[in-house]
Amino acid sequence: MIDYTSASIDFALLGPEIALLASAFLILVTGYVKSLGKLSPGVAFVGLVIALVLSLNQWGNQSSGFFGMVTCDDFGSAFKVIFTLIAILTLLMAHRYLSHKSLNRPEFYALLNISTMGMMVMANSTDLVVMFLGLEIMSLPLYVMAGMARRSPESNEAGIKYFVMGAFASAFLLMGIAFVYGASGTTDLRRLVTDYHYIVGNFKLYLYSGVAMILVGFGFKVGAVPFHSWIPDVYEGAPTPVTAFFSVGPKAAGFAVLLRLFVFGFAYIGLLSDVFWVLAALTMTVGNIMALRQNNIKRMLAYSSIAHAGYILIAFAVGGDSAVSAAMFYLVAYALFNTGAFAVLVLLETRTGCKSDFSELSGFSRLHPYLSSVLALFMFALCGFPPTVGFFGKFYLFSAAIQSGFIWLVVIGVMNSFVSVYYYLRVIKVSFFDQPQQTFVPVTYSPAIIVVLLITLAGTLGLGLFPQQLLDISQSAIFAFL
Amino acid sequence: MSLDLAIFVISALVAVFGATMMIFQRNPVASVLYLILSLVGQAVLYVQLGAAFVGAVLIIVYSGAILVLFLFVIMMLNLRSSADLGEPSPPVSRFVKYFVSCLIFLELSFIIRESLGAGSTTSAGIVTMADDSFGSVESVATLLFTRYLYPFELTSVLLLSAIVGAVIIARRATEDELPPQPEKAVGPISQKTNEGQE
């Protein structure tokens, strides 16, 4: 088992984080040297690949260090691999889009790597203070990346809204951490677990209010329903590759921390299951119903991301190993097909004047039969049709819930999946069957985005045909849970 | 002992005088300067209590950084005299202000009375003296560089990313940003009309 009290200051635990940070520093230093500035995406890519390799190396190697503030377990390593893969896909699709919109600055790549590093810190932390710092390191670059396009009022709006709501959420989170600290005298999750009965016996009110505020803070970050209002505007206004990044990256990081906190840390609080029941039902329903009446695909995908967060929240209401591994499976699946859908949007938006409205898709399939079929496949995956990985994601989640007796929650989830079919298939209907109002401007491919499409396509279909492998990995990851 | 007492009395008087004058100034710049004076007095009190580090931080961070920031803001807004501060507040909000200050005053006097009454050794440590190393630079540094090394380093990364972000947002437009792109017209983001359907 892990040596929980390890005081060792072992920087090998932080290998992936250090690789990302070093590449970010290198970009910041060399970015404005004339001959080296063009290399920034390459440097960022190399940093991410090194981080990926180091994270893979950490698999199976369980240790704790820095006085218990960092815990390397398979759970954290799995999430680190997910984060780096998402960041690599974002980097590949961002470069040409940013050059086209004349936003291509070296700092973008540095910020991308720093943000990914913040996610890694979150996934590996077993201390509330470190968790908070990781969250802030992840979020601050995202605010800036959302507002990168300074000439576009929508991008400015996205940046400011994201910043204000993010700061609001951080305030809640910090207040909650302060309350928990006041009740228990520690920010160490393991101490919170071991001393649980003493804390609840003496300071129940403070612990509960602290936990509630922490939940509100992370609810903002993952876009759970009463705290979702910022998502559509931010997703629509931000540059599309950035939207792709923060529709999956911060969400996965937020869920990683939530899983650690609420499925393990505060698992004794019996009320939490009911709270998550209501949150999940609300989030699914509101996300899906609001998505019905959107005319912009980015906005539609924003509401769909709320709905998918709702499906994942089912796992929190259910609890237990099978639900947690199903949630991890779902996160990986969602990251794949959602990034794929956004990659198609990025391709479409590199034509001038395109805003990803539904009407702009008409006539798409005649000029680009393959690309539109790929988009259609991602939409099928988002709905959850077999044989895509989306089906198995929902299948494992719902079956875990049924086994634990959450029948009504599953009924709500299945009903919501039916509702979602309408708006996902509308993309396919417009692109395949609608008469084009004006001639469709052809899309030009770049090698990097073809790679992104191939990876996401292979993942969506391949894991849909062989889901057991991914499920095995996610099941072995939760054994070392905290 | 008498020297200690003299230093205490003088610095406490300076702190109270600064705080009082700060409230009664109509010119915001003078107000901030009196606040700095009050903080210097308080810093001396902290040093006398053995918390040299807190005293130093009070001077460096509060007087040095935060209040200078206040001055910048006041100067940017160009608030010169009471006329720039707008109308005096209505009686209701004035009543709220007095009420809240009275509450805080009562609370503080209650705490002080309780801690003195309890024999000044057992209670929450308000008047009690901690051991010598408490609050010293060494003890803070030891914790910061061992137990809390990781959060400490993370904070520096956080500050770095904030600086980089601020520079990106606030920098001057470069030439490749200046020629207007054939982008969409400026307009409010709102629900678009339902034209895509059918």
Description of the structure:
The complex is a heterodimer of chains A (482) and B (198). By secondary structure, chain A is an all-alpha fold. Chain A has a domain at 271-482. Chain A is built from 19 helices and two strands. A two-stranded antiparallel ribbon of chain A has the order 1-2. The termini of chain A are close together. The model of chain A has no long low-confidence stretch (mean pLDDT 87). Helix content of chain B is 65%, strand content 0%. Chain B has helices spanning 2-24, 28-48, 52-77, 91-117, 137-145, 149-170. In chain B, helix 1 (2-24) packs antiparallel against helix 2 (28-48) and helix 2 packs antiparallel against helix 3 (52-77). The radius of gyration of chain B is 26 Å and the shape is extended. Chain B starts with a helix and ends in a 28-residue tail after the last helix. The model of chain B is unreliable at 120-127 and 181-198 (pLDDT under 50). The chains are: A mainly alpha (482), B mainly alpha (198). Chain A binds chain B through residues 7, 9, 21, 28, 66-67, 69-70, 101-102, 105, 107, 110-111, 114-115, 117, 121, 127, 129-130, 133-134, 136-137, 140-141, 143-144, 147-148, 150-154, 157, 159, 233, 236-237, 293, 295-296, 352-353, 355, 357-359, 426, 430, and chain B through 146-151, 154-155, 157-158, 160-162, 164-165, 167-169, 173, 176-177, 180-184, 186-187, 189, 191-197.
Structural class of chain B: mainly alpha
Determine Rg of chain B (CA atoms, Å): 26 Å
CATH architecture of the largest domain in chain B: Up-down Bundle
- CATH hierarchy class name of the largest domain in chain B: Mainly Alpha
Largest sheet: number of strands, sense, barrel closure of chain B: none
- Number of separate domains of chain B: 3
Tally of DSSP β-strands of chain B = 0
The name of the CATH superfamily of the largest domain in chain B reads NADH-ubiquinone/plastoquinone oxidoreductase chain 6, subunit NuoJ
Distance between the termini of chain A: 11 Å
Multimeric organization: heterodimer
Low-confidence stretches of chain B: 120-127, 181-198
Fraction of residues in helix of chain A: over 70%
How do the strands of the widest beta sheet of chain A line up side by side? Answer: 1-2
Instruction: Give the largest chain-chain interface (CB within 8 Å).
Output: A-B, 52 and 36 residues
